[in-house]
Amino acid sequence: MVRLRPMRPADLDELMPHERDMFGTESWSRASYEDELADTDLRYYLVAERDGRVVGSGGLLTVGGTAEVLTVGVLPEMRRQGIGEQLMAGLLAEARRRAASEVLLEVRMDNDSARKLYEKLGFAVIGIRRGYYDLGRVDALTMRLPLDGSA
């Protein structure tokens, strides 16, 4: 069973050794995460735990009525078990709690499993960002989910 909870700085000890495996060239530094965690007014980070082990994480930025999913990652050996979907559900619940009317995200054009998950959750493609990932080699799709019933 997976349990979601707010991320703590101590969780970085478990997550950082896997950051490159989860995100490749898009991996973040420990200092970047620490800066993100320090801003609880605009940002919200959570982790997924299984058997006391951190197996994934996600982050959200909310400014005004717009929330943006900043990151969602699951340890490679734990993928395809619904953990990413649980993390997204937690982030979307927080976006609603923060009164966001929409949620935006970017996803690698070549990340079929993530794209399918986001589409399943109701996100729709609203644009393409050329060369957004992998040092300019991979495009990103920008996706949007309205939370207030607007299309």
Walk me through what this model shows.
The protein has one domain: Aminopeptidase, CATH 3.40.630. It has a 7-stranded mixed beta sheet. The model has no long low-confidence stretch (mean pLDDT 91). It is of the alpha+beta class and 151 residues long. Strand 2 and strand 3 form a beta hairpin.
Give the SSE map.
Elements: E1 2-6, H1 12-15, H2 19-23, H3 30-38, E2 43-50, E3 53-63, E4 66-74, H4 83-97, E5 102-108, H5 112-120, E6 124-133, E7 138-146
Parallel strand pairs: 4-5
Antiparallel strand pairs: 1-2, 2-3, 3-4, 5-7, 6-7
H/E element string? Answer: EHHHEEEHEHEE
- What is the C-alpha radius of gyration, as a whole number of Å? 15 Å
How many DSSP E strands? 7
Unreliable residue runs: none
Task: Write down the domain tally.
Answer: 1
Can you tell me the CATH topology?
A: Aminopeptidase
Strand line-up across the major sheet: 1-2-3-4-5-7-6
What name goes with the CATH superfamily? Gcn5-related N-acetyltransferase (GNAT)
Tell me, briefly, the overall form: globular
Beta content:
35-45%
Compute the number of helices: 5
Q: Which CATH class applies here?
A: Alpha Beta
The CATH architecture is 3-Layer(aba) Sandwich
Helix and strand composition category:
alpha+beta
The percent of residues in helical segments reads: 25-40%
What's this, in brief?
The chain is an alpha+beta fold and 151 residues long. It has helices spanning 12-15, 19-23, 30-38, 83-97, 112-120; strands at 2-6, 43-50, 53-63, 66-74, 102-108, 124-133, 138-146.
